Amino acid sequence: MDVPADNVRSGAGDILIVGDTPANLRLLFDMLVEEGYRVRVAPNGELALRNARAAVPELILLDIAMPGLSGYEVCAQLKADQALRAVPVLFLSAMDQPEDIVRAFAGGEQRDDVDFESLIQAADQALYGAKQAGRNRVQARGRGE
Known about the structure:
alpha/beta
């Protein structure tokens, strides 16, 4: 799933979505691209780690319950990796069952069932915080700290 270059909003972050349900990945991908984010997907924890190491994302949306490596295990490996530990991770499982996410957004149902706006707000806050932390590290290095 590639993002059309003309649909990336200025300053939008590079988001990696990780989950094992193709319909959910597609749904989140489409919604985030519509909001102007650059989005990549990984269908399992192992591929997510490879993907993140190949090109460090600015934010990871991570399902907890996956076969193979769970979201918790993926997160632990991300945080143990010097190059990836600063990448913010938002867990998706708090939104209820994956089938509920698809059902809420498919067929024109109300977004109140799954608060996509809250997800966008959380993503924006995480991306902003990560960018600020990066600027602070660069400034500290510039001062010799």
